[in-house]
Amino acid sequence: MEEKKNEVAKLQDQEKALYAGFQTALGENNKFANFLMKVLKKRIKRVKKKEVEGDVDEEEESEESSEEESSLESDEDESGSEDEVFDDSICPTNCDIGLFELALQLREKRLDIEEALVEEKKMIDNLKKEYDTLSKKVKIVATNLNAAEEALEAYQREKQQRLNELLVVIPLKLHQIEYVLYGEIPSDLSGTLVFSNHSLGRLQERIVQLHEENSKQQKLNKECRERRKQLIREKREMAKTIQSE
Question: What's the main place this protein lives (predicted)?
Fold first, then answer.
């Protein structure tokens, strides 16, 4: 999308440069300047360029004229070009033939630029439509995914609850029991929790990690407080400087 926008901007710059160059070529106090500028800005129908394998007569004339207005055309020039009918096939008497031919050449180039602008803007519109369509699909997929994840999570919770309700006999050795009350193992172990040494090790590691994270956070908070004090001092000094000036 950004590449296409850059291409449009480049074409618009080319169009501006075309008009500026022609204006320079006309020079000052050229009595045919208005006529030559009308020749340059005139809208004409162009034959569509396409390859046809059959008879040449099957080529269709393009109904597409320049749909984009020149960014440099004024309303006055436009109305003049549309309302006034003039013959641009013959160079007027005393008019510089070189400038007349240059106007015709630049007109073709101008039409090429305008047609390219139309195509680029069509492509941008198509890309926008495609992007909007894909965005809507992504939102739908994301919504469905969230719903599926929530359903899966609810199922996992329900499954775990059902598993917790099951009574399971676990054979334990005496050294595996670390629940001691008053120096003895209680007769009722219903309130105890059974888990592996691996899980216990992970919990202990997590405790160490939390201590480290807490220390880092405290250090960061201290630095932020110091920075805040420094900014307050700088603000006061700046206010004094402004008042003294």
Answer: other
d(CA 61, CA 1): 32
Burial group, residue 39, by CB count within 10 angstroms (0-12, 13-18, 19+): buried
**Which DSSP symbol is given to 91?**
P
Higher-confidence position of 147 and 43: 147
Residues 6+ apart with CB under 8 A from 4: 120, 123, 124, 127
Interval 96-137: pLDDT, tens: 778 878 778 778 887 888 888 888 888 888 888 888 899 999
Joined together, the tokens standing for residue 152 give 């899966």
Beta bridge partners, 184, equal 181
* SS3 label, residue 184: strand
pLDDT of residue 59: 45
Can you give the pLDDT at residue 139? 93
Output the pTM of the full model: 0.40
Residue ranges per structural domain of the chain: 195-244
Q: Alpha-carbon distance 20 to 13, whole Å?
A: 10
Q: Extract the runs of DSSP E, i.e. beta strands, from the chain.
A: none
C-alpha closest to that of 67 among 113, 21, 36: 113
**CA separation for the pair 127, 182 (Å, rounded):** 76
CB atoms within 10 A of CB 110: 21
Question: Does the pLDDT at position 52 exceed 60?
Answer: no
Mean pLDDT for 61-86 is 44
Q: How many CB atoms lie within 10 A of CB 219?
A: 10
Can you tell me which residue has the tokens 């899966």?
A: 152
Beta-ladder partners of 47: 61
